[in-house]
Amino acid sequence: MRTRESAPTVPQKKTVYFSRASRSARASADRSAIVDRLKLRTSGAGSFSAPCIPSLSDHYFDKLMRIFEALDRPLQAGELAAMRATFREQLQAGFDSSPYARFVLAYRPSESRPFALDCTLSVVAPSLGEQYEDFLESTGTSEPFGAQPDAMVLQVARDQAHSGPISILDVGAGNGRNSLPLARLGAVDALEPVSTLAAALARAAEAEALPVRVLTQGILDERLEGLRDNYDLVVMSEVTPHFSRRDLNVVLPRVAGLLSPGGSLLFNAFVARSNSRPEPLAEEAAQSVWSTFFSREELTAIASSCGLSLHQDASCVDYERQHSEPGLWPPTAWYVNWANGRNLFGDTSSEPSIELRWLEYRRG
């Protein structure tokens, strides 16, 4: 009897379904793995530079760390603390050497460590003279401070010259826009540390046969040669905004000692509208943009200590605008914004907390 052979069993096919969430997780994991793998093949190099403002050291450093993060080269904890400390020290040292100092941090891929950057931090500290040379080159004009004399300077000089010719010291004389007109009222010693400006002033005075003696030196030089000790008028126009507080404490007694009894010291300075102590950031940044400011309390204390009493106090912008020749105001395109404190505070809608003011002191 034959039996029927049974048919072979065919395995059933099973369909496996992946949820959308699991597919997404897998794709995400793959992407992360690929990105991590490609970090070895990415690189970045460059530099970051800014003024050496000690109060902004953490602000600058955090910016740098974000750059390093973006390049997949973050610093490790130990490196981070050490580099932050070094960065702070270098910015302070740079600012102490010159308020115009800038730091430059250059970075490039490390040759010895695959996920690191090699960094070099340097500080460039130009002198005030070098700053002026750059400024003169950038303006492209032979009259970067304007062509007209300051109205206040001429007014004070005429007051002093009411009984005859006077002797005048013009500190930071520049291209002579004040020295040359003053020489028509008396003999002028023009103190100018920037050789380019001093030479131009000497040529202009010689061409007009004016009694101007040009001395290529700065009022902050350790030794000053050729100065008298009995000037009727000492002028420092647009000079003190370059000073530090330490500088002003040196210069005011120095020039006060050069005045004859009853002589006038006339200078313009940025004066704080409030006597409250400013933030360190404002003090430091002001020096880097030629806008060093002082409180009236500071000015009074320094002046009284060297026998000077305040005779006149006026807004530079208001006075010069009111007394300028028609069509000759402002003296330069940058003057009004600078004198109103905008170099430091920018184009804010509020009134800047400093302004440039004319201050005339007289020796008792």
Report on the architecture of this protein.
The structure is a single chain. This protein is of the alpha/beta class. The chain has two domains: 44-124, no CATH class; 128-363, Vaccinia Virus protein VP39 (Rossmann fold, 3-Layer(aba) Sandwich), CATH 3.40.50.150. 39% of the residues lie in helices and 21% in strands. It has helices at 20-38, 57-70, 77-97, 128-139, 151-160, 179-182, 195-207, 245-256, 280-288, 296-305, 316-323, 335-339, 342-345; strands spanning 46-51, 102-109, 117-124, 166-171, 186-191, 212-215, 231-236, 259-272, 293-294, 308-315, 354-363. Strands 4, 5, 6, 7, 8, 9, 10 and 11 form an eight-stranded mixed β-sheet that branches. The protein is elongated and about 135 Å long. The protein starts with 19 loop residues before the first helix and ends with a strand.
List keywords for this structure.
3-stranded antiparallel sheet; 364 residues; Rossmann fold; elongated; alpha/beta; 13 helices; 2 domains
Instruction: Tell me the fraction of residues in β-strands, as a range.
Output: 15-25%
Shape: elongated
Distance between the termini: 148 Å
CATH architecture of the largest domain: 3-Layer(aba) Sandwich
User: Mean of the pLDDT scores?
Assistant: 91
Number of helices: 13
- What gyration radius follows from the Cα positions, in whole Å? 33 Å
The helix-and-strand class reads: alpha/beta
- How many E strands? 11
- Low-pLDDT regions: none
CATH class of the largest domain: Alpha Beta
Please provide the ordered H/E string of secondary-structure elements.
HEHHEEHHEHEHEEHEHEHEHHHE
The major β-sheet equals: 8 strands, mixed
